[in-house]
Amino acid sequence: MSPLSTSHSQSDSEKENDDDMIARTETSSSNDSPTEASFQTDSCRSSVLDYHDHTNLDENDIRVLQASSPEIGDPFADVRDRMEALSHSSRMYHAYHTTDQDKSIYSDSSTSNGLDTQYTPTTFTVPTIPFFAAYTTYLGYAVLIAVGHVRDMFARLFRRGRYVAQARRNTYPSDDLKSYAPLLKSFENFYTKRLYHRIQDCFNRPVASSPGANIQMLERVSKDGNKTLTVLGSLENLSAEDAEVYRMGKHLSCMKDGRVTRKCLNLGSYNYLGFADDWEVTCKEGVLKSMVDLPVSMGCSRMEGGTSKLHYEVERVVAEFLGKETAMVLSMGFNTNATVIPALMGRGDLIVSDELNHTSIINGARTSGAAIRCFGHNDSENLEEILKEAIVLGQPRTRRPWRKIMVILEGIYSMEGEYCDLRSLVKVCKKYGAYVYLDEAHSVGAMGSTGRGCCEYTGVDPSDIDILMGTFTKSFAGMGGYIASSKTVVAMLREKCAASAYHNALSPVVCQQIISSFKVIMGLDGTNIGKQKIAALRDNSNYFRMRLIDMDLHVMGHYDSPIMPVMLYNPTKIAAFSRECLKRGLAVVVVGFPAVPILMSRARFCISAGHTREDLDRALDEIDEIADILKLRYARSSFG
Ligand SMILES: Cc1ncc(COP(=O)(O)O)c(C=O)c1O
Question: 125, 165, 336, 564: which has the fewest C-beta neighbours closer than 10 Å?
């Protein structure tokens, strides 16, 4: 029986679970404001306040917290007050939220450090696409699609063309289209052929360095109008004239083996805490040592003996860091969601998922066989409506109560750069006895005064989150995923979750990388590098966001979030933005359909603690020029 179950359960065999939930419901009903009772522990509350109150830090602390060397002082001194004021209202919004009742929790001046007086509830508006941009975006896609179909039609008619020619070569029996229905025939396939291939040079660029603040991109060329791309290689492969162009080119250089690269400022990696930049100093020693007495691969799953002492150590550190009873680590973040959700949920259960949840969550939810309902992104009122309706109506047809309900959320939404409105969503979940599953892939390490994630940032007690999930691929420069929860839940998952039972265990080398990075973040390495990284990430992110907004760009997300999508809307601007940036030595990620809705193409910046103020200023100056060329100032004018 699953250790997770809700009060909607009726069967005898699940009575134990019912009791668990009844206890929850009783806590709720014995209190006028049901969710307030266990919502804020003192330690949790004071950490939120510490974070919000920059005045807690003495001058020396502030200096230490900067990414630059102490002699230089605060690199953001000239804009510090403005940055703090802007980010303060974002923090207040997430920690206090909007109701007066919430606000009163902090009105005690002995604990609030006077912050209450500064509190002004802010509502965050998401930029909406101007009519002109929507119209031209649709028009742009319509033209591209029409031209694509005409080309497909002529290719079929004359049996000539890139894709038809392949089929006629008859390499495989399935190339005989008379006997087989086309394996790939969908809008996505058409989109790839006729739209994506036109701009494919903007994606999957080969990188020849670690994903630090500065990277080396291998130069690619296309000899057939972007149909295929090849790595340029060494200049010796070129004519003297062509080679000269590359020799003169700004930002270009050659690697030791002669391959031509472009030196770029990296604005696209999830290297939030900058471990890719200072790995040699922070983690290398421990990681190399771990290879002396442990294998690189365990060669079997966790359940079949693939557990080393380092696996236990990572699990202990994760549980301690997050304030949960225990934790389990798995070899991949994606598979953590894709296999843990089906282990927890099944037929007769209901998953209520934020509409913008990551594809790994969608995969896990669909595989589970549970019924799925989506609620509007971060919309606690919509969540409440759905939960209320689910409890009143029960399962479709039979009307039997749902066996259990689980609400799945993310800490930071990676395509929007928005924080989860955890406080109000958890409040609704507790009111209706629904379990909470929080994916902290992007928020753990990057969010909160000590990097403990969304709970710390919003002041929600971790015990109010039933399942904390996260990955080590972002802030920790490692790989793998974790689940932190109660002992009962984790014990069940160890046996029932496919990633624990059947996947190869996480490599001990990676375990050591995770342990080393945790030590730095927690200050257990005896330095303040971790503290400095967290503060540098926050400052860099807030500065970059503030300047982008000053440029009148449509910027999504919240202050303190290291992810900053800037809206491009028009399909032509996706490629133009990416190419302009590359030309100017900026590596950026651009995102279009199907990763985001067709109208909502964007460039997505990911800021790191490894960036310096100089890096950011250079990038911002270039982006400012590009914004003029491409007409991106949608906050100033509907025409950009
Ligand atoms: C919210 C979320 N969950 C899970 C994952 C999967 O993590 P990983 O890349 O570590 O497998 C990602 C990846 O970016 C993510 O954004």
Answer: 125
